[in-house]
Amino acid sequence: MLVAGCGAPAAPGSPTLDRVASSHVLRVCSTGDYRPLTALAADGTWSGIDVDMARDLAAELGARAELVRTTWATLLDDVVAGRCDIAVGGVSVTPDRAERAVFTEPYLRDGKTPIARCPDVARYGTVADIDRPGVRVVVNPGGTNERFARATFTRATIVDHPDNSTIFDEIVAGRADLMVTDAIETRWQAAQHPGVLCAVHPDAPFTDSEKAYLTPAGDPAFTGRVNTWLRTARTDGTWDRLARPWLG
User: Fold this and answer.
1) Residue 36: cis peptide before it, omega within 30 degrees of 0
2) Helical H runs in the chain?
3) Could you please report the per-residue DSSP string of 109-125?
4) Is the entire prediction scored with pTM above 0.90?
5) How far is CA 188 from CA 100, 128, 246, in A?
6) CA-CA-CA-CA torsion for 28, 32, 33, 38, nearest 10 degrees?
7) Which of 168, 212, 218, 245 has the most CB atoms less than 10 A away?
8) Among 223, 224, 239, 243, which Cα is nearest to 86's?
9) What does each C-alpha distance from 234 to 122, 189, 216, 229, 242 come to in angstroms?
10) Could you count the other beta carbons within 10 Å of the beta carbon of residue 227?
């Protein structure tokens, strides 16, 4: 029998927590193009629910949050390569990401649903309605929105648009008919374009998925510390306080 203080194994440390403690910096990867969770303005200012949450986490760890811009195509590689300590901003829980990095506990349940010009909402209620020749579905490369569209729509035209910050302007301008993205984003964009863009059944999306934060593999102590903070933030009003300016 092991007796405390007499050869008992030490609790495993955390290289991430050690680095944050010594540098007082938490490096946070985010795409900056997924409102209301993350947004990067032209002047370099970051905002969004998950950006504020990351800053709260950093403060909890005695550090400041340093935002590191990434893309949906490179987000996983950036976490694996150690370019950041955590990735935030609407990151969907997927098996391929979970194979190479570690998700925190989910903090948001959502799903894919269309957003279109308001007069066209009734035209795109089902997958069959969308998957027709002549229907143009715009996608941002590298993320789960593109993955869903290419796996689901074989007859509609998939239109690539590289900038997720301006992708909804393609629908407004008539260069695309709709986009399929997470319901939280469709609600936000509809609120920013009242009477122009409308979310299509955001309360009954095509899919059911979870959002979580992504942490490096091999550092369970750090992931556990983030989970402890996240559970508290979800129950003590922190999440609600930070989300209220964005979600109303």
Assistant:
1) yes
2) 15-23, 49-60, 75-80, 95-100, 127-130, 144-152, 167-172, 183-192, 220-235, 238-247
3) EE-EEEEEEGGGGGGGS
4) no
5) 31, 25, 8
6) 70
7) 168
8) 223
9) 36, 24, 22, 9, 11
10) 17
Tell me how far apart the terminal alpha carbons of the chain are, to the nearest angstrom. 57
Q: What pLDDT digit, counting tens, does each position of 35-93 carry?
A: 999 999 999 999 999 999 999 999 999 999 999 999 999 999 999 999 999 999 999 99
- Contact in structure between 132 and 189 (CB atoms under 8 Å): no
Query: pLDDT (tens digit, 9 = 90+) per residue, 77-131?
Result: 999 999 999 999 999 999 999 999 999 999 999 999 999 999 999 999 999 999 9
The secondary structure element, H or E, covering residue 197 is strand 197-199
Whether the per-residue pLDDT at 9 is higher than 80: the answer is: no
Asked if residue 89 lies in contact with residue 50, where contact means CB atoms within 8 angstroms, the answer is yes
State both tokens at 140.
């941002």
One-letter amino acid of 218: G
Place of tokens 């469709």: 186
CA 176/CA 183 separation, integer angstroms: 19
CA atoms of 88 and 247, how far apart (whole Å): 18
| Distance of alpha carbon 173 from alpha carbon 196, whole angstroms | 10
Q: Is 206 helix (H, G, I), strand (E, B) or coil?
A: coil
